Amino acid sequence: MTFTAAFVALNVILSTLVTIPIGIIRAAPMQHLINVLGAVLTGPWVIVQAFISSTIRILFGTGTVFAYPGSMIGALLAWLLYKYSKKLSLAALGEIIGTGVIGALSLYPLIIILELDAQIFTVVAAAFLVSSLIGAITSYIILKQLEKHGVLLRI
Asked: Is the dihedral of CA 29, 31, 35, 41 positive or negative?
């Protein structure tokens, strides 16, 4: 639970500070980086972390309701793939597929329900995919270094 709380705090703070402009979108990879780290280090608590982080970011005005489906589906899939494979690469892939693909597709019904312009879907979906790629790859690199130095075995 301590890791989960620390990941929530890091996510909320870093998500406001770290964004990467890419064309017309701004990639915000910290949620995805934290999701993969959490999937490996906290197990199912990563889903709680994703929910709390998204809620706090929405309350602070630094996130939108779109954060819920993306972050929680990505966290769930990252954890499940890691749990059953014990492969860091599959945890990262789970985040990319969960957020960048499934989470992005789940936005369309939400956009329709909220009566937003359906054309926003393309931009938001692209942002989800790019952000999840950047965050998942970065977390994979961090986790491989932790594994290389035996830190993951001690946690």
From this structure: positive
pLDDT digits (tens, 9 = 90+) for 41-82: 999 999 999 999 999 988 998 778 888 888 899 999 999 999
Kindly state the DSSP code that residue 61 receives in the 8-state scheme.
T
pLDDT at 16: 85
Cα distances (Å, whole numbers) of residue 58 to 12, 51, 64, 65, 142: 10, 11, 5, 7, 27
**Residue environment code for 34-70, b if the CB has 16+ CB neighbours within 10 A, otherwise e:** bbbbbbbbbeebbbbbbbbbbebbeeeebbeebbbbb
Round to whole Å and give the CA distance between 46 and 51: 9
